[in-house]
Amino acid sequence: MSAPQTTAFGDGLLSRAAALIHTLVTVGALLLAAASPGLAGLLLVGTDPANLPLAAVCLLPLGPAVSAALYALHHRDRDLTDLHPARSYWRGWRLNALPALKLWAPLLAWLTVIAFTLTHFSATGLPGWWAVLLGGIGVGSLLWGAHALVLTSLFAFRGRDTARLAGYFLFRHGRATLGAASLLVLTAAMTAVLTEALPALLAAPLLLSLLHSSRGVIAETQEDFTA
């Protein structure tokens, strides 16, 4: 009669849950720390539409911070006895800060132009359907940005190649794009109904959900676009 199998410490369900919570809390705290200079600036800028360019500048550190968080969550340890989320986060920041910024800065500039136009739309003299079109372009740009951040966080492509792949996957993997859209709606709802601080506090779980919905994108990229 064979002896009953035992589970080593750190391999059980409770240990894996504790490891996940520890990783989410640590990565979330580090994300806020890395983005804190810009987030503090946002509090000073205020909500006047004329300050949109300044708000965009304040959001620049957020791109590399989110990219590092995606890297750390993707490479997270599931063993409670071998957790290094802080080390993974800062490694992701060192590897991806510049590549992420090269994509994040133009995206922010483009979204700022759209937002500034929409907040001053009455002065443009354009027909109303232009506002709807610009809003759709803005949402599409955000979804493209979600794919681009996932790709640049996990793969070492050139910026233009990452941009092309993000556009390709925008339509190729509709489920991943829909998942990113759902997270975008959830984030906007939490901000509008509750408080702007809530999405920041829940950034790590939201990004983990983004990674989960992007599994098809990640798998196809590994299979077809990497050596």
Search tags:
227 residues; mainly alpha
Describe the overall structure.
With 227 residues, this protein is mostly helical. The chain has helices at 13-45, 52-58, 62-74, 85-119, 128-154, 159-172, 174-194, 197-201, 203-213, 215-224. Helix 4 packs antiparallel against helix 5 (128-154) and helix 5 (128-154) crosses helix 6 (159-172). The radius of gyration is 20 Å and the shape is globular.
Helix amount: over 70%
* Main beta-sheet annotation: none
| Annotation, overall tally of beta strands | 0
Number of helices: 10
Mean pLDDT rating: 88
The CA-CA distance between the termini, in Å, is 48 Å
The string of secondary-structure elements, in order, is HHHHHHHHHH
Class from secondary-structure proportions: mainly alpha
Radius of gyration: 20 Å
**Overall body shape:** globular
Spans where pLDDT lies below 50 across 5 or more residues? none
Beta-strand portion reads under 5%
Any chance you could write out the topology, listing elements then pairs?
Layout: H1 13-45, H2 52-58, H3 62-74, H4 85-119, H5 128-154, H6 159-172, H7 174-194, H8 197-201, H9 203-213, H10 215-224
Helix pairs in contact: 1-2, 1-3, 2-4, 3-4, 3-5, 3-9, 4-5, 5-6, 5-7, 7-9
Compact overview of the structure:
By secondary structure, the chain is mainly α.
